What does this fold into?
Amino acid sequence: MSVLISIYVLFSFILAYTLKFVFAQVLFSKERAMINSQNNRTSRDEQIADLSRQIRTPLSNITGILDILGKTNLSDDQRDYINTIHASANNLVNVVSNMVSTTKSNELRIQEEKISFNLFSTLNNTIRLFSENNSKQKFSLSFSAEVPSNMTGNAIKTKQIFLNILNSIAKYNLSENKEITIEVSRTNNMPGTLELLFKITATGNIPFPKEYRSDESLYGTDILLLNTSKHIQFLELGLTQKLIEQDGHLLSIKPEADKTTFEFGITFKESTQSYSVKNIKEKVSNSTSFYKPSVDIKDANILLVEDNFSNQQIIILYIKNLVNKIEVAYNGKEALDKFGKTKYDLILMDVQMPIMDGLKATKKIREIEKSTNTHIPIIAITANAFPEDKERCIASGMDDYISKPFQTEELVSKLKAHLK
It folds into this structure.
């Protein structure tokens, strides 16, 4: 009996040890797989962030030059060509933003500059781009009587939406002869605000997959929205949908046997005066009290810290007519040297630079300021577009953040806000 008990105890010990060893090995394998997966994901995110930064930097220069050209004396055709290039550049920016958002949450950047423009001319010129390339595409454009010819709104974004939808029709509509009707009507009578409904009807066949072609009259609202989402996905109009939704409107797509109808709204204002509503006055509160007198932008002495010469020139072109004095530093170390010798009213700071980056330079400046009880506003200008990039900038001591590409009005409004 004692021998049997001993054998049983020994067997139990061996079994328990074996199970523990196997469990430890399985756990170790899972942990190693998780670490490898995390490393791969981190590497992928870093590659996407780097690619996003590399694309955004030249795009910022392109949109910057277009903004500057748009403020010069141009013919209507020249201005329309510039708006078309601008809309295409915006689409590329949105593609990059959408690529980034597949790995991390990221807001779609939409340009918010609003100007007084002629909507009929804008749409007519957009149509002309397609009709000139294909004589078998016939267009019809009609405005209801209550829609004014001139209004205030985002002309470039409006053109983006139409370019995207018409491109999608041209790509997916298989009919050789297509008739495209565009109807514009007003949906509200409130003074000062224009709520316009756009209806684009394209005859011909768009080959939606079978699962998208159910009889929608049999279903409720939720199913209709689901089908619309599928239609938008099939036609590659996801970014267009986001552009429309920013105004609080929806993109509706209704396919039928012989035609497809697109409906959406856009909000404008009844005004012929050019102005910008992108007036971000975002400030970070600082518990430390300091003395900072208000400075008019034209009297401000601004330090631009940027290692890329082309980027320097674009930013200087943006603000040279508003600011009398702009000095340049090529990296964070040079910025610190200049900061120690000259009194600046504001610093525009790039983040990624050789020798010393913008985050370290900002921390050094804030350490120096502690002994003088002063505070100079620092605005980050960077192509890094992840949400945590802004958090890192603010955590380093920067007052604000602007991501490339940006609009002149956005930069100027931030300068004015932080110089007050």
Remarks:
- Confidence is low (pLDDT under 50) at residues 104-111, 214-223, 272-291.
- The CA atoms of residues 52 and 96 lie 6 Å apart.
